[in-house]
Design goal:
Elements (H helix, E strand, L loop, with lengths): L1 H26 L9 E7 L2 E5 L4 E3 L2 E2 L4 E4 L2 E8 L6 E3 L6 E4 L3 E5 L5 E4 L5 E2 L5 E2 L18 E4 L4 E5 L7 E5 L2 E3 L7 E4 L2 E3 L8 E3 L8 E4 L1 E3 L5 H33 L4
Antiparallel strand pairs: 1-6, 2-5, 3-4, 7-21, 8-20, 9-10, 9-16, 11-12, 13-14, 14-15, 16-19, 17-18
Helix pairs in contact: 1-2
């Protein structure tokens, strides 16, 4: 009877983790460039009381065995990198990646992080930076006398200066992509960190070799679908309740056994 208690308890722990993940998805429904997570479960070890195919008499064997499982565990939380919806902002420094790829961001310690959040700004030095002040890599610097900033679909950054009759190219935005983006580590602040599972970053030009195009004046919103997350939350809640009922039933059966009289 104790087996049922621990098995159902593992189910409650697993569903609690699913609720936690769903809550984080819903909390970031309006976070620019956010990618929702999915929880993957795996059943635990099985106790085998009789193996399938065990001989019983000459020429005959047991067609099915006897096994009982010991519950469930969480094995993965996978980021789903489906495209989010676009929001038009008409801000020159808002960028969206139409397809595969990540913006590269340089941290103060010299490390590189990756993001789909294209809500960039200018700092006091004219560098294009994130909301936390981390500059793009490679660095793009806008002159103080620049009047118009144009960012092409191939990442080319051009500006108009006083007295010029045509834009002048000052740099190019490069993107990174990964063989296994689901293996990236979420570092917070809309940033991802490369891991051994994600593979080394592949650097390229937007619009070429499988990289997505850039679009100026747009932002990619979260790919969280509120209705899907609400349904997922209801399913997890009912599964949690069902596992609690299993614990209650096991407890009542133990109580009945304890109350037996000769």
């Amino acid at each position: 009877m104790m087996r049922a208690l621990w098995t159902a308890a593992s189910g409650m722990i697993g569903q609690q983790f699913k609720i936690d993940t769903t809550a984080n998805n819903l909390a970031n429904v309006n976070t620019t460039g956010f990618k929702k997570s999915r929880v993957d479960f795996q059943d635990l070890l099985y106790q085998t009381d009789k193996h399938a195919g065990t001989p019983v008499t000459a020429g005959s064997q047991v067609p099915t065995g006897i096994q009982v499982g010991h519950g469930v565990r969480t094995v993965a939380t996978q980021k789903l990198f489906t495209q989010g919806t676009y929001q038009q902002t008409d801000n020159d420094y808002d960028l969206v990646i139409e397809g595969d790829g990540f913006f590269q961001v340089l941290l103060p310690d010299g490390g590189i992080r990756y993001t789909r959040d294209g809500a960039f700004k200018l700092d006091s030095d004219g560098r294009i930076v994130t909301s936390d002040g981390f500059p793009l890599e490679p660095e793009i610097r806008i002159d103080r006398d620049a009047r118009e900033v144009s960012i092409g679909s191939d990442g080319t950054v051009s500006v108009m200066r006083p007295g010029d009759d045509r834009p002048q190219e000052i740099g190019r935005i490069e993107l990174a992509r990964f063989i296994n983006p689901a293996g990236l580590k979420s570092a917070g602040s809309n940033l991802f960190e490369a891991t051994a599972a994600s593979g080394e970053p592949i650097i390229g030009i937007p619009g070429l070799d499988g990289f997505g195009d850039l679009a100026q004046g747009f932002l990619e919103m979260s790919n969280v679908q509120v209705v899907e997350e609400m349904v997922s939350m209801i399913v997890a809640q009912r599964a949690y309740e069902t596992n609690s009922k299993a614990i209650q039933a096991a407890d009542e059966m133990l109580q009945t056994a304890n109350n037996l009289r000769r």
